[in-house]
């Protein structure tokens, strides 16, 4: 049976941070599902940098259907979890169904990949305390407040948790995550 991977996201997630791992993990042979607050067509965004701006800009990105709602997720059916960034984590961290899902992955020590603003979700369930992580650099203080040691690196591996700063670091992030996945949840 093919191992299943769950991606948790919502509207205003960064397009590349959802679709790159979705496609890369499928290419590797995993069965990948996207869960959101409700089963609907999601509107992703594109974050990029413009000359003269102090921070990134946001433009409409791709749309993509969610396979299932958070309330319909059985975490026991999934071998690993991917948490994309964008603005979605800002409001998703308030979703009690999602917090239950996240907690079950950490309680079972299953592989988790998080990127950019995704660590706001793991911070919301107090799963960063004592860990080494990276995130979008503007979140360094948030990561420290969550009890993590922040490292400004393309990818940081702490046990089964693999974190990355943002979409320019995709190749390092997925290389490290696939190393963890192949050890903990190989494709059969």
TrEMBL record:
Q: Which residues form the signal peptide?
A: none
Q: Which residues form a coiled coil?
A: none
Residue span, DJ-1/PfpI domain = 4-178
Family, according to the entry, reads as follows: Belongs to the peptidase C56 family.
Q: Which PANTHER family match?
A: DJ-1 PROTEIN, DJ-1_THIJ_PFPI FAMILY PROTEIN
Recorded protein name is DJ-1/PfpI family protein
From what organism does this protein derive? Answer: Streptomyces cellulosae
């Amino acid at each position: 049976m093919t191992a299943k991977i769950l991606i948790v996201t919502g509207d205003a997630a960064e397009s590349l941070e959802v679709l790159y791992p979705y496609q890369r993990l499928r290419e590797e042979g995993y069965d990948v599902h996207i869960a959101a607050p409700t089963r609907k067509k999601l509107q992703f965004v594109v974050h990029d940098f413009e000359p003269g701006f102090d921070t990134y800009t946001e433009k409409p990105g791709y749309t993509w259907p969610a396979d299932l709602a958070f309330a319909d997720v059985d975490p026991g059916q999934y071998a690993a979890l991917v948490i994309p960034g964008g603005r979605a984590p800002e409001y998703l961290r308030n979703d009690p169904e999602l917090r239950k899902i996240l907690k079950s992955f950490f309680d079972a020590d299953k592989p988790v990949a998080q990127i950019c603003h995704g660590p706001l979700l793991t911070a919301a369930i107090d799963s960063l305390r004592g860990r080494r992580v990276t995130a979008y650099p503007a979140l360094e203080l948030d990561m420290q407040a969550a009890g993590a040691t922040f490292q400004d690196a393309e990818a940081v591996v702490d046990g089964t948790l693999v974190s990355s700063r943002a979409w320019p670091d995709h190749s390092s992030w997925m290389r490290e995550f696939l190393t963890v996945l192949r050890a903990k949840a190989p494709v059969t």
